[in-house]
Specification:
It contains eight helices and no strands.
Length: 175
C-alpha cells in the first residue's frame, strides 16, 4: 500500500508527469477512442499501481511503464466486461499515432539492457564471437577463417557461448 512517504510521492509524481501522455494514448487506442472508458481505465490503473506501490518501488521507470501498460490493458478489459463494450483485441497492442508498440518497445529496451550487461560478463573470446556474428554479420565459415579455427569448432564454441549467456541472463533476471 502506498504510504505518506514524501519520496514515494515524488517518484509517483515524476513517473506520472513523464509517462501519463503515452499511457493515456494507449488506453484511448485500445478502447477504440472511447474517451470516458479510456479515462476511467487510465485513472483506475494508477490507483491499482499506487495500491501496490510497496511491491513496485524497486522497479525502474521502464519496468514500471511496462507494468502500467499491462495493468491498463487488463483494466480496460475488466471495465469493458462490466459495461459490455466491444474491445477489438487486435488494437490492444498498438497506439493510434505511433508505429511503435510501447509495451514491446519497453520490454525490448529492458531486455537489450539486460543482455548487454550479461554479454559484458562473458570472456573476451565470447564477446568477439558475438561481435563477428551479430554486428559484423559474418558466417560460420568467415568467422572460422578470421580466427583460424575449424567451422566445427566455431559451431561448438557458439553453442557453449549461448549456454553461458543464457545462464547469465536467467541469473540476472532473478535479481
Amino acid at each position: 500500500m502506498f504510504n505518506d512517504d514524501p519520496d514515494d510521492k515524488v517518484e509517483i509524481t515524476k513517473f506520472f508527469q513523464l509517462k501519463s501522455n503515452a499511457l493515456y494514448r494507449y488506453a484511448l487506442n485500445i478502447t477504440n477512442g472511447n474517451e470516458s472508458l479510456a479515462k476511467e481505465a487510465f485513472s483506475e490503473s494508477f490507483v491499482r499501481v499506487i495500491d501496490r506501490y510497496d511491491n513496485l518501488r524497486s522497479f525502474s521507470t521502464d519496468r514500471l511503464f511496462s507494468y502500467m501498460l499491462v495493468v491498463i490493458k487488463h483494466t480496460v478489459f475488466d471495465l469493458a466486461k462490466k459495461e459490455r463494450k466491444n474491445i477489438y483485441w487486435d488494437t490492444l497492442d498498438t497506439l493510434p499515432d505511433d508505429d511503435v508498440d510501447p509495451l514491446k518497445e519497453s520490454i525490448q529496451r529492458i531486455d537489450e539492457t539486460n543482455i548487454k550487461k550479461c554479454v559484458e560478463q562473458l570472456s573476451i573470446h565470447d564477446q568477439t564471437l558475438i561481435k563477428l556474428r551479430y554486428y559484423d554479420n559474418m558466417s560460420d565459415d568467415e568467422i572460422a577463417e578470421a580466427l583460424d579455427i575449424s567451422r566445427a569448432s566455431i559451431r561448438s564454441e557458439f553453442s557453449r557461448m549461448h549456454r553461458r549467456l543464457r545462464k547469465l541472463y536467467l541469473e540476472f533476471e532473478k535479481e
